[in-house]
Amino acid sequence: MPRTLVLAEKPSVARELAGVLGVRSRGEGFLENERYVVTWAVGHLVSIAEPGDQNASWSGRWSMAQLPMMPSRFVLTVLPSTAKQYAVVRNLLLNDDITLVINATDAGREGELIFRRIYHLAGCTKPIRRLWANDMTETGLLKAFGNLVEGEEKRSLGHAAFARAEADWLVGMNFSRLFTLLAGSLITIGRVQTPVLKLLVQRRREIENFESRNYWTVEGEFENSAQSFKGTWFSPPEFKDSQIWNQDLGQAVVSECTGQRGEILSLEKKKGRQKPPLPYDLTTLQKDANVRLDLSAQQTLNIAQELYEKRKLITYPRTDSRYLTRELFRECLANLRAIHPHFPEISQKAASNIKEDKRKFECINDKKVSDHHAIIPTTLRADPQKLRKEEWAIYEMICRRFAATFMDDSIFAATSLWISLASHRFRCTGRTYLEKGWLDAEPWRASADNPLPDLRKEQHVLVRELTLVTHKTKPPAHFTDATLLAVMETAGKLVDDEELREAMKERGLGTPATRAQIIETLLGRKYVLKDGKRLQATDLGCWAVDVVCSMMPQLASPEMTGEWEKKLKQMEQGKYAYKNFMNEVREMVASGVLLARSRPTRAPRCPAHDKRTTSPAAEKR
After folding, report:
1. What DSSP element (H or E) covers 471?
2. In angstroms, rounded to a whole number, what is the distance separating the alpha carbons of residues 208 and 74?
3. Cis preceding-peptide flag for 237 (omega within 30 of 0)
4. Which of 82, 235, 452, 536 sits between 20 and 30 A of 22, alpha carbons compared?
């Protein structure tokens, strides 16, 4: 009887899928019934072979004569640690009883790579369907099995997966050998790792080279009808800057204004609105968790993956979208009901707004949802007693953000006035919330009320106290996981504007699913150390960047790597050819090797290593 093979990415997921499909009988490395066989990978069962296995002349001691290493066709190899399970999967793929293969690996680029490497190395040609699940609840999985995607529809995703892996191999293997040989000490190069390391090195040097300066501000405390309020002096003629770089000038301002009576020159009152935030994607979740919970990017990803796979409490976490589809929006009341026992007030407010048919929400945008929508809670109710402290904290953040998305704007009253005082001007500002709106869901984002007294134009005020306050200019802050993720998302650009950040995401360094691992890799290679929350480039990291930049600076360029990420994203969408991309990478590697070898510049000496390293094992690190 013809059967369908379901290939999951890991045993735990395979058991979940088998349970949904009613598959109970256990075999060696698989589960089965009369309709389905469910088996699993263990992450990457198959990888690109080492250089020596691609070409015998590339094995042994490293030499310039071996470079560039350009396999005409990449050889795949089975990892020894998982060879037994690969044999099980291969035999099942080639079994005559199997007439259809369902790819049920993680629904993203890396999951596609895991499946297609196994499928190709096994020599399988059977038709493929793709399971594309947004959540791991029984309802979500049954829905996904009922809407299997034709394998051909994900071919472009497969091309992008192969292109990413092959580009990483070409860049890493060739340039790690090249720069190690030129420098006389081991340097490991990565297509994304090296530009990120450069950002950290630049920040360290900006801090080290920073010279602090004193500056002053004049702070005034004013009084009207026994009510006091504060203001700050601004310099003429434009009155845009409050910093004073000459202490004598500051003291003169204090002397001239002391004992004088001020007059309100202008007063402006207006209402302002603060829109609700969009739901989380992985990067924004990691940033907030680092700031609020002191969790690293990798810790947050691991917890989110647990909440998705094991707990089934959130949707697919490795997403780069912060939007929801209109179809999903119709089901959001069920998600709000699931979180209501724990967050009754905010979930009720969100539900009431959703029930208003004419209400529009910024987060509902089909065009801005790519492979996966934003991270939201599922319809399964959580039991806090069964969750670890960190799991509950991340789940709570996701629930609160989900509810906030559908809540009212925050409305505040803002007052701004200018006081004329002995030919000088002081600015006073006040702000009071009229309606907290969505800030009830995320109260830590609300600033403290700072109301001004009831004042009017041309009214006189008394000076209670004037103070010359000394400040010091501060160097840029060391990167944290949160701030490094932010600049990785925008290819090294510091961007505060939310819309501009969204537009630049396609050129980011790495993807939401890989950025945490890049940070961990830099830490593991001792190029970066972590001091509390702070990420700092080490001497070794600075040296590695100096070597690269002295010979081939474009290899450490965030802009170039960002452009590659954009093209990989376009490839996923069928808008950029695999062949064109790989030709560009091969050309860059070949020309880069030639250029670096031809330069007379001697690499700076490594501060930590004195021995020349020519071991092939170095390329694995």
Report:
1. strand 460-472
2. 44
3. yes
4. 82
* Higher per-residue confidence, 184 vs 123: 123
> Which residue in the list 86, 280, 316, 527 is annotated as catalytic?
316
Tell me the CATH number for domain 162-209+485-620: 1.10.460.10
Alpha helices in 525-577 (DSSP H): 539-551, 558-572
CATH class of 282-405: mainly alpha
Paired with 37 in beta bridges are: 5, 32
| Mean pLDDT of all residues in 341-349 | 98
CA atoms of 395 and 406, how far apart (whole Å): 18
Whether omega for the bond prior to residue 236 falls within 30 degrees of 0, making it cis, is: no
Asked if residue 320 lies in contact with residue 565, where contact means CB atoms within 8 angstroms, the answer is no
> Mind listing the pLDDT tens digit for each residue in 75-90?
999 989 999 999 999 9
3-state secondary structure of 134: coil
| CATH level 2 (architecture), domain 3-44+79-147 | 3-Layer(aba) Sandwich (3.40)
Where are the domains positioned within the chain?
3-44+79-147, 162-209+485-620, 214-272+413-472, 282-405
395 among known catalytic residues: no
Phi, psi of 534 (to 5 degrees): -80, 135
- Domain 214-272+413-472: give its CATH code: 2.70.20.10
Please, what is the Cα angle at 393 between 389 and 399, to 5 degrees?
Answer: 140
Which residues are CB-contacts of 73 (< 8 A; sequence separation ≥ 6)?
A: none
Query: Percent helix, strand, coil in the chain (nearest 5)?
Result: 45, 20, 35
Please report the pLDDT score of residue 501 as a whole number. Answer: 56
Of the listed ranges 42-46, 82-86, 465-469, the least confidently predicted one is 42-46
